[in-house]
Amino acid sequence: MNLKQLxxxxxxxxxxxxxxxxxxxxLSQSAISRQLTSLEEEIGFELFRREKGRLVxxxxxxxxxxxxxxxxxxxxxxxxxxxxxxxxxxGRTLIKMGFPHSLTTTLLPKLVADFLATQDQVSIELVAxxxxxxxxxxxxxxxxxxxxxxxxxxxxxxxxxxxxxxxxCVLPAGHPLAARxxxxxxxxxxxxxxxLGRLRSSREDIEERLRxxxxxxxxxxxxxxxxxxxxxxxxxxxxxxxxxxxxxxxxSERVVMRPFAPPLWSDYGIATLREAPLxxxxxxxxxxxxxxxxxxxxxxxxI
Length: 303
Fold this sequence. Notes:
alpha/beta, six-stranded mixed beta sheet, 23% strand
């Protein structure tokens, strides 16, 4: 039994699938399956029942999860401490922060560059992943703070609200609705849709509004990232509704984005641990982040 196998087991238990674990651990789905099979062979019993493409945890898997979780948290704290010691030898202060992938490839590179230009004694480590993984990273002390959707799933976290953001409707370039200033649920009647994953709270709100307007919801593709949704719309598969917070940062000549009206607001902020207060450089970074997220203040507003 090795740590990689345990990481894979924990990720599958937390996400409910090898696809979800693949996203969290940045491994291929086949690699996840191999590690899981290897672990089951080594311990001598099955941890999951394979049922129509789904992994259903056996009672033994549930019993094992707590022990694995505690071990992973200890290892995360050990990694954090060795990183701090390494940074200390270079005379720098290390700040570890968690963000969704979409922000690490759009808004953050310029923000980090501008921040470091004013902080020559600071080093940064960016940890990227979905919001639930970011929460776990904060709880496990793998990061000092994380950017999360509010309210958090783990109510033990301390949160600092930053912004509230609406939604954008993404249309293929040349779509008849592109001439409108805003798009409503009624406008989308009969349209094929590309929707973000069912685990997102905003998905339920969007589907409820669409059902009230048109009865059935024609979801042709379910995507698990904003970038994937935009790319699928660009291929003409359908239209999508995405968070304006992220969508406003994505540029493509192949799609047109219009505000989804009336807005469905979602709140975002910073999550930390109560016993780990934010340092002055961290607070400076967060203030810069908030200013840039708000932008023109039309679809993303400060809280």
